[in-house]
User: Fold these one by one.
Assistant:
Number 1:
Amino acid sequence: MGVKSIFSIFDGKFLKGVFEKGNRVFIFYVFALLVLCISLNIAVANTRLKQIHCSNELVNLKADYRSKMARLQFESKREEVKERLSSMESRIQQPKKPAAHIQAVK
């Protein structure tokens, strides 16, 4: 394997010799393997993109679930306080305008 064989590969003489020897089936086999590898790599990349998209969607759904659970717990606590006050016959009512600013006393 000398300099001549490397130049024959770059010149394309290598392929002429291969076709003359009857190795066409091998060349088509290598070409098919190359196409298969490229298509598999593209399929893997597409699957990875779908996985990333689904992962992001899952994070968003978990955040939505947590916010809804917190809201439901707050509402149930509010209803519980309302029931206790009514059972104690208290006159405290829910404010019509909730406080916009709460100031701490020092």
Number 2:
Amino acid sequence: MHGKDSPIDAMLNTMRPTTKSLRGFGWTLFFILSFRVMSRFPAGLIEEGLFLGLIAVVSFFSIADLLRSTSRANTSLFQLILIPFILLPLISAWQAKSVFHQPLLLGLLTQRQHYIFLCGYFSWMALVRGWITPEYLYKYFVRALYISVALMAFFYIFIDPSTYKETDFVKYTLNKGWQYEFPHSLAVIVMVHAMIQAWGERRKTAYGIFLLSAAYFVLFGQDRSQLLFAGMTLFVYFARNLETYRKFKHAFVLGGVLLLMTTVLQLFRPDLLDHYVRLFANASSILTGAQTDEHSTNIRYIEGAIALRGFSQHPWLGNGTVSAQFQGGFRGFFGYFYPGDVGILGNLFVYGLLGTLVFYIPFILAFRWSLQMRGYSPAFLMTCTYALLFVFLDMLTAAVNIKFIGLQAFCFAVIYYYRFSAYPAFLNGQISNSDPMDTAVQ
């Protein structure tokens, strides 16, 4: 029949745009909460409530799915990887009880942010069960990245960080002054995504996004190791995915852009250029063994020594995580000491060899799968692959997994989905290399 729609059909057609908008809002909020952008905001009770609610929801679905698969003897590789991640906070809390005599329950509560890794598993479930298509998940993921970086930039541009100096929302360093406790790595992921669009999909507008996110990172992030690792990540993509002619072409263009930016900074912000030269010069002293009077570099030596000593005493399971509510946290026991500051040494201190290995297994598997999928390069997969590469490098000098594990968990889930769902379909000729994901974000 080709007559007019029934009143019910008309009502459903009216509701569809609203439902789509609600779904987009829900998934975007899902990612922003996973990224922990506003986790330290002093009036963050609403954010914390939403975050805990999100953990409760994804934990319920993930554990229920795990139990159902186990009962049917149909456990997937992803679920096998999931089990040690679920157990890790329990082991860490027990170690903190044994080493520091912290109450077991407090040890578990202080690691609540760890369970955001289940958002990755939930995203994979949503994809394989058809709750959302890859192209829409990609769209909402990128949207959340843009919103997060815009929100962080808003605070830096319009609100002096020293306004919050009595809170955990900011920290003070001699090199950078007052800085917000934001996950600045999100700006790097936007840079990586923009370059993948510019080089892989030849979208000229992506260069503008790259420059804006790079400007945020240079002006506000000011993390020398992350800046170095961002360059390394982009170079790996450049070397692996561009033809020889385009390599020379883009190398020439990038060289010109860098020269122009350096000239502009020298003319208008020589202090900022000198600041970065000083930062990298002081950081190089760690490799050369030279003396430096930079406070942050010297404090890393001290924190590294504390981490090594603690690791040598409890090498297999680590020392666990201590809450700031228990005798002042790690600072109460060691003075100035934050495991996240010293990268892989911090992970070894907190989780030991076995726990640290758990965190690195997804990186090893993702690297192996990326080699197996050589020649298959949808934008969503490429973005998550190189985002994960950056996180891997970043974890060498900053244990970002201790506070911000949501991004890497999601990227691993996407790579897993492609390797075991989309890639087999590509090999069978059911989908092309340029699948609908390449047109998802316009």
